[in-house]
Amino acid sequence: MVHQVLFIIFGLICVAGAVNLLVQRHPINSALSLVVVMASLALIYLLLGAEFVAAIQVIVYAGAIMVLFVFVIMLLNAGSEERSSGSRMALLIGVPGVLVLGCLIGWIMINNNKQLGGVSIAATDFGETHPIARLLFRDFLLPFEITSILILIAIMGAVVLGKREG
Amino acid sequence: MDIKTFIIVAVIKIVLVVFIMLTGVAYTTLLERKLVARIQNRWGPTRVGPFGLLQPLADGVKFILKEDLVPDNVHKFLYILSPMLALAMSLIAFAIIPFGDSVTVRGMTIPLQITGWGGASGNSDINIGLLIILGATSIGVYGIALAGWSSNSKYSLLGSLRASAQMISYELALGLSLVGILLLSGSMSLREIVKQQSNTWMIGGFNTHLPHWYIFPQFIAFFIYLMAAYAETNRIPFDLPEAETELVAGYHTEYSSMKFAMFFMAEYLNMFTVGCLATLLFFGGWHGPALPFLPPLLQAILPLLYFAAKVLFFIFVYIWVRGTLPRFRYDQLMAFGWKFLLPLAIANIIVTSFIVAWRA
Questions:
Q1: To which H or E segment does residue B118 belong?
Q2: Which residue of A has its CA nearest to B164?
Q3: Tens digits of per-residue pLDDT, B63-87?
């Protein structure tokens, strides 16, 4: 019961943050709305019993990545965006489009409830530190290491590009 | 313990902790002024009350009575939000910190930790305590970054840019320095880590009588932690974000009255968090030598006294460093963080994990 109520509250905050992200005209307000979305997602993970994932979500996404976003916006001193005819078109087509898409997904989910299966918000140890570490460093060690090398290559690429510019 | 009692007990604990912490902050300012004065061969505040002991009270009244200015052309929402964010995030860390083991009131075991609960199988807390503190610190950066940006002032903006760059850089070294402890203890619950430090070190069956504190195997990590934590809290020698000779007061230049006081409290609370975390991770938390000759009441609060004494020691070191060291230059600060602390932290992790793997 408590879980359901909390889920609805955080879900509403999350959706409100996402809508605000699109509606706001100043980049910094949009970036901060994204922080709200990230933080409420973390709380939903916490409700699912995924403690570790929730903490990492806050530290990496809401903390590190979004701070860099805000930092760049502050450095560039970006001003408010203008409303163009393109954005008016997006409003006219986008809002009904999203409504139709949402109704469609909801309809499919409700009708095929049995095949899709439900999600329980009971406490499991799936998202705690030890199970995740076991998955990453034993069962999926090779893909994990390859991903880290991929990221390393991307970092090196960024450094090379940055050197050439400066 | 059912959920209703848990919430009631937690609210009582929150009120107590917030009251004690904010009083602690007020008196730390006095301690700092007194100690720095002594280091510089002065007296410090002496006029208000005996030995200037009522000075924090006078400062508090002054903060409340000052005019609360909001300058022109600020981004009003963020200008008001950012001091709240800074203070709230520094207070959240105390929800995780265990101040002692537990007390028994009317047959109910109450752990001395806001988010801890007592049960039949002993006291426990959440298994990601350390990560929550790191997360709160990383959200706290927004308070400072947005304060500078929303104030519409060059000094504030430069201060907050410096602050965010510095905090992002040193957060890495700070986080990595704690990995060694996690490897040794195999847990992220602060209560569990403290519990493991209650015995003495045994080397090959020989009792060394040294307490089983993680400072001994992890002294390099402790050094990195302390340096990075000083930078995280924007204190001398890393106080470039508020370098008064260059930036007036940095990110809080445009703030006055209680809004400024909130930044001030946040900074001092962060110092407390750093001290508490160092105590819990490296210095055995509330453990200390048992003193059987003391009366029972003192015996009961002895762990709390040990904890407070250790935290106070770190506060003292903070002030001592402030009184003796000059400020870094900006390029020195960045080079120190990225080229010295970060590689050293990674080397420490590698050596520690080899030792852990060898012993297993």
A1: strand B117-119
A2: A71
A3: 888 888 888 888 888 888 889 988 9
